[in-house]
Amino acid sequence: MDTAHCIFCRLSADPNFKTLFRDEDVVAFADLNPQAPVHFLVVPRRHVETIAELGDDHLLGLIFATAHSVAREQGIAESGYRLVFNQGSNGGQTVYHVHLHVLGGRQMTWPPG
Q1: Catalytic: 39?
Q2: Tens digit of pLDDT for each residue in 75-90?
Q3: What is the pTM of this model?
Q4: Which of 39, 68, 97, 99 is catalytic?
């Protein structure tokens, strides 16, 4: 995919876009269609379409570390939260740019979907 057409590439590059966290590697922002009282995404700034293609353990670690740090800031770290990567169409992936969903602020149910 051309990164100019990727919504997450455009949002992560926009200095005026409201974020919860931003550095040179990742960006975190509120989900536009929240499924829980707290629902944010952690997105690598480098375009990678799927988690299966990521192949970068350091970047994956930064995604998880950012998720936990922002969860603390959002007040859900102690009570718990759910982390979700959707992989491919059967896994529910609709935006083909790796992103980690972080959901919290309520009791999560199982099975999830």
Answers
A1: no
A2: 999 999 999 999 999 9
A3: 0.93
A4: 99
